Amino acid sequence: MTQINQAAWLVEAGKPLEVREAPMPTPGSGEIVVKNAAIAINPLDTHMQDSGVFVKEWPAILGCDVAGEVHDVGADVTRLKKGDRVIGHAINLVTSQPRDGAYALYTVIRADKAAILPDSIPFTHGVVVPFALEAAVCVLSVKEPGTALPGVSTPALGLPYPSLEDPAESPRKTLIVYGASSSVGSMTTQLATAAGIHVIAIAGAHSVALCQRCGASEVLDHKDPDLVHKAVTAVKDSTFEFIGIFDAISTPETYTRDLEILAQVGGGQLAAVHPPPADVPGNVKAGMIFAVDDVAGPVWREYVTSALEMGRLKALPEPVIVGKGLEGVQLALEKYRVGVSATKLVVEL
Ligand SMILES: NC(=O)c1ccc[n+]([C@@H]2O[C@H](COP(=O)([O-])OP(=O)(O)OC[C@H]3O[C@@H](n4cnc5c(N)ncnc54)[C@H](OP(=O)(O)O)[C@@H]3O)[C@@H](O)[C@H]2O)c1
């Protein structure tokens, strides 16, 4: 039977998505085609829709997170086969190719950015993992600074990958994750603690349980007027080497607090998700992550499936299913713009 592809196309910046036919993608070497069962909404998608940023080819298909069945396999793919249940990170952000966008019935995924999803985890849950996972590995395990945007370097914390074993007790390190209820913040907390890092989380008071499920040792309320003092005390009490702050929110307000904390603990890394302040003190190393990097390859290959099976990696934050079918994607983007708290919006296909 001939398969027909459809996509929710962005025809022009600032316009609603239009659902219509799309070319049926074929996988190149090292690629798979996924028949999507669920896709997730990321803030990047709303920025791309609003401004057309990063889009080089029009019309465009946006979206970075897919879960579904492998429909077709390209040459040199040995780890995955037709019919496997998978999650994957779609990289239209980098390639600007419509075939690489998630908001379609079929999407091309690089096999090294995909992993088998255990049968016990529904597609609608597994789909919260891919882009956040890739971002979290880029926060933690990049070893050499690169370039995120012209003139903005990437941070290089050089921390170990998450482990399926209990990581060695020593030498341990302490990291603050600011915005730990967000998708990227909660995934960074999970991967850091699975690498033996002691995480002090900063999140809303209603997200304490989520941060603890992700492995945080301590959770501080981001609305507490005494936040800076409490964070400094937590760092000084931790006895482990302090690495710095991953700021998953990266606004002027959070940067002010980051720099106040770093000033009182003797400096450290400031890893941000947007360009950090240009004028940081000499003892602060600031950089912006770029969440598409081959550094995540070993984590996709060797960690994700087993860790999900063992419950060591959890599909968090919990998804909220906001629609069915490609027509639901525009609605989901609008819901995202209203705001989310400790959740990921998901559309079932
Ligand atoms: N540079 C890159 O490569 C890259 C990659 C991925 C994402 N990003 C960026 O990273 C950011 C996070 O993305 P995401 O998908 O993780 O976002 P998200 O899950 O949609 O973030 C929403 C969460 O942020 C929390 N939050 C908002 N303001 C906060 C504050 N002042 N302090 C602490 N928590 C706060 C909210 O907590 P409450 O419940 O308390 O409201 C909510 O749970 C976005 O700006 C995105 O564009 C960048």
From TrEMBL:
The keyword Iron-sulfur does not apply. The keyword Oxidoreductase applies. Residues 28-118 form the Alcohol dehydrogenase-like N-terminal domain. Belongs to the zinc-containing alcohol dehydrogenase family. Residues 184-266 form the Alcohol dehydrogenase-like C-terminal domain. Pfam families: ADH_N, ADH_zinc_N. Keywords: Oxidoreductase. InterPro entries: ADH-like_C (IPR013149), ADH-like_N (IPR013154), GroES-like_sf (IPR011032), NAD(P)-bd_dom_sf (IPR036291), Trans-enoyl_RdTase-like (IPR047122). It comes from the Eukaryota. CDD domains: enoyl_reductase_like. This is Chaperonin 10-like protein. SUPFAM superfamilies: GroES-like, NAD(P)-binding Rossmann-fold domains.
